[in-house]
Amino acid sequence: MPLKIVENISLKKYNTFDIDVNARYFVEISTVQELQTLVLSDIFRNNSHLILGGGSNILFTKDFDGLVIKPVFKGVETVSETESEIFIKAYSGEIWDDFVMHCCEKNWNGLENLAYIPGSVGASPIQNIGAYGVEIKNVLDSLEAFNLEAKQIEIFQNLDCKFAYRESVFKHEYKGKYVICSVTFRLSKLLGFNTNYTAVNDELKHMNVPELSAKAIAGAITNIRKSKLPETSEIGSAGSFFKNPTVSQDFFNR
Prior knowledge:
- By secondary structure, this protein is of the alpha+beta class.
- The chain has 7 helices and 11 strands.
- The protein has a 5-stranded antiparallel sheet. The protein has a 4-stranded mixed sheet with strand order 1-2-4-3. A two-stranded antiparallel ribbon has the order 7-8.
- Helix 5 (198-206) crosses helix 6.
- The model has no long low-confidence stretch (mean pLDDT 94).
């Protein structure tokens, strides 16, 4: 089946700020084979490109005069498991919060503090998203990414991603050079949660949670987020999106 590359399409429904700008070309990609076909096309070779996930960390100010590539790989599958842990592969087009809640329902622990963050699974390693004491680097085992220049899939282990505070190798050195196709997470089946934040504990008490669980923590964090921010469907925004300043040790000491 040939690729369906659309011309002059509005990106209004593809970004959470709800900005109505157009892309000269737009294509949704659901398989590696489609990516291989795309990179050999004249449209890809002759135009700049933008890889667009959930559209929650981008603010368009004008039309994009190039090719917008939207990965829509779908699926969640078990890679392997033991009595104490499970390795879960989620494909990049899955909605992040849906995936988090799926894991919480299964009592697979590790992602619950990252509940109700907008965006897609594939975008989560790029920013090394984090909240309430947990970051992607704490739970990511590996990921599969398509090299747009080499035209092949490459596997990145956790250390290969060079995670730092809201940083990864995909945000700078490899920006625009890879399409993340899937991410494998290492989650725990054992009890043990990060509830170091006072706000989270206060909300759990308010909810009268009888027993601590991933689902309960995710629910508390979702309530906190909803109390602070409107739904992006009501008021366009990027959700809670910020980066704390980083200073030198000398500045900190002063």
